[in-house]
Amino acid sequence: MARIVEPLMHETLRSDFEDRGFEVYGEVTLGDAGRIDLYVITPNGTRWGIEVKNHWNMIAWGNRPADATDDEPHPEDPIKPSAIREVAEQVNRYTESGYCDEVYIATQGTDALQRALKDADNPPVTAEALYDMVRSNTSINIDSPHELPSKLKWRDESPPDHVGTIQVTPWSPDMITSRAVPSGFDVLKPVVIEDHADSLSAQWVNADTPTSLTQAHREPDVAHRVWSGLQSSGDYPVFREAVIPDPAGDQVKQIDIAFLTPRMCPVEVYRNQGDDDYQAVGIEVKCSLSPKQDVVDQLHTYSQSGAFTRLYLCVPEALKQRAQDLLTDNSERFTNTPGLMIYEQDTGNISIVKQPDQRELRYPLLRTSRNKRDESCIFWGIARQYHNVSGLPVYDQR
Question: Would you say residue 1 has pLDDT above 70?
């Protein structure tokens, strides 16, 4: 499914919880347990760990009804056992890290997820067959076939009540109008905690917070502030991890933040080039400019993509001078020099200190191996497809 979906779910959920007065951090490392998508501290000090999952990446496509189409999956589509076991392994690690009081999984439609968590969906083979296989090849301690589905997923003897579920979609209805999203995209819904998690037992909890939270500037947090500020300033969709061509490689690239004005389709920007109201804007967020050559190479790749009319580098205020020097010293490399945005941590404001050179939008459309019929719109990827009857420029990334 579309690459932009899960990153947008992260940002939408984070914005909603921040509006509730929660303290939220993105992509937090929980010691040896790995990195969790969102780490939340509620007003009463309770620490939540949240793993965000795109439902369409977890469903069992082969078990869908005969009249279903690949283009329009449904939230009730069953989740494949291998996907829920992978989620369970992640949750087990976060539970045992000691950094979480409660653990949640967030997805678009929680009914199918709740059924899978509680083993209401059938395992892929009989319990008896799995029992014999596991007893022979693993150290899992089981006494009967009926214990096996839970034992394969959870380290407790039964599916845990400490795993809660949250409904979240890419964007929420109060962010953008439903007319902004294409047909077949997720229906926009409000964020809802559908199933509250029980608090973890004392054996799994300590009083510490992850050491990574002490960093002065964390890139996921700065990127969220930029995305949130832009999204709240207009009714157009602001993308996270927007999909763009890579003429120098064999895979599409994804830039941190992008948006289209005044509407949602890049074809309109292409057809109205020269009108300042029509722009395709890309923003790369950096909290470190080292190694410098890597940053220059990345900006060069984006500048050659043909996907932007304006391109920006965005850094915290402390890096302002270094970023200005980097852009000036490498202006010949970029052809059209990117602009510079500054994130002011004290105020949360975003300011433009250098306007970018105007660029030509060369490729409003993109084709990848995932496209079955029509081309994809840049930024949207396969989330928004376009029937290109008029022969508009397409970059073929296959």
Answer: no
